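Data availability (excerpt). The following record was deposited with the supplementary files.
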Amino acid sequence: MGEPSVSPGVWARGLSGLSDLVYGAATEEAHAEVFSVRGERGRWERVSAGGFATEVTGVAKGLVAAGVGEGDRVLVVADSQQEWVRLAFAVWSVRAVLVPLATSVSVERVVHVVRQTRPAAAVVQGDRFLRVVSGLQRELPDLGRVWSMEAGLADVVTLGAYMDASSVRFRRDGAMAEDAAVVLYPLSTVSRLTRGVVLSHGALLSAAADLVDRMWPRLSELPAGRASTLLDLPLSQISGLASLVACMVGRVRVGLAGASGLMRQVEAFKPTVLVCSAGVLESVFEGERGSARSTGWDSLGTFNAAVDAAVQFDRAVKRTAWQRLSRSMYDWQFSRVREMLGGRVHLAVCWGGGLSARLESFFGGVGVPVVQVFGTAESAGVFVAGAVGDRVPGTVGRALEGREVWVSREGEAHVRGGAVFSGYWGDGEASRSAFREGWLATGFAAEVDADGFVTVVGRVRAQAATVEVPGRFVARAVEASRAAVDVEAVEGGGAVAGPVEPEPVGSAGSVEAVAPTEALPVVAERGDAELVAEFEARLRAHPLISQVLVIVEGRPFASALVTLVRDQLEYWRLVNGRPLSMAPEEIAGDRDLLREVQGLVYEANRSVPRHLAVRSFHVLAEEFTVQSGLVQPSGELRREAVLRAFSEEIDGLYRRRE
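Predicted structure:
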């Protein structure tokens, strides 16, 4: 792999496929530790390169025995776990194509992806998805084996136990960098059924190698074998997948975070490289500030002074003796922050950007240098990145080597050069429309300063292509919809929309949505039932919202129950930097999400007379289903059944108003 002083990116660029990351490391450094996994007692146990290669070969032989051929797709519906990593590299070892989805997606999305990609095999987590995918075997004869992830890939390994490892080696020998490696379906609030982004082995390796080159001056300062990270980004999305590949290229030992208690896991794992979203760093900062506030105003004042000292220290071009002394005075406070991150972080990589300039400088001053990186699925996960010693706080850095970034007259960022996708699966027109005279559209608005530092402003479209996705779920993105919401925050987990005085509300998930005081437009003579139906349809048009039930009869004012689309909820969590461990119920009660739904209700209230304007609503994370008896087979809600099932939540909306 070369000398330690030379970036491993040089080695990675010469590989033919992603599986060479596994077998190349096993050949050169069989005892090098590449992964950490939780043992039976919850302790982290390390996996060597040689041991991991043996595990991957066992799964790969099972795929060959199952009839998975070169170029065949293998669907994986599962959360991030070590079995996912083994399976992914096994798929790549036999020159098949990975099609990953998280368990948070809707059944509708799974069916859409299966019908579009026609996989030869599938590994599925959870009985619900297992039944759905297995049921499609009758419709799709290409879909052979469907395994349960709960079996831990044992069934796959058993199937190929009789085979010789040479069957896998023959496949690997024919691998080429141009081979398709993965078909990714990004989560989006613009459409439930996004296009599948096809990425080749070479694109993922090249992007990872370029990123490692940018980080290597800092990474190389760590002793051999000491680079480690606890990965909390979803492997089924480009952020997690690109992070995994970059860590393997950069010789960073990877542990996968569990479903709960991320910060406790970080403290126990003690990573030297922190790869995370902006939300993780924000939660650490807010936790320390909250602790200071609860202690007293004196403690909060001390904390704020410490923050100012850290920010000034980080931003100083030439650090004076006074600045060094000021920083040292608060090092006891900074050590608490470092300990929350495990106490050994040498570099923090904020994937996807979104961290404010002040917070980035704060962590830098604390002794945890942060660099932000950004990319899209179409750009193989990254095209700009910061570097320690070459960054501007609040930006996502400069373009990687060999790439150019250009901002169009409309403000959309375009990139040229480097690693880009092979196209959208089965959609040539959309693939062509993603490029403008050789420049790849990113779907994000951005600004570039005179020195080439990029600041991401917001999302323009769900994906690079400009061709609209068929269906009714085309609407403005989360970032765009925020601009139309006029909200005053209210203590206690709620908000009030419109030019009215704020009133306290109760539990998270329930919000006051008071109608605006200005005159409503004149509405033609139509029945209340028709107007309510149109109101509900107006809200359902937004991709975050699945079902709406407005309650009017027998009540002093109108209220509503709102359910959210599960995979859109997951996307909202990603773009807003919330932790991966955050439960759907917690997301549904998040103040920012409630404000967003409230803005939609505010706008919809303008289309109905005042007595039908929804003044309070309750958000539910789970959708009403036919199985629960709340939905008819036609998809229409059983209104009386819903009213009975959620009578307590509905009564609570009116008690708060009283």
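Summary of structural features: The chain is about 40% helix and 20% strand.
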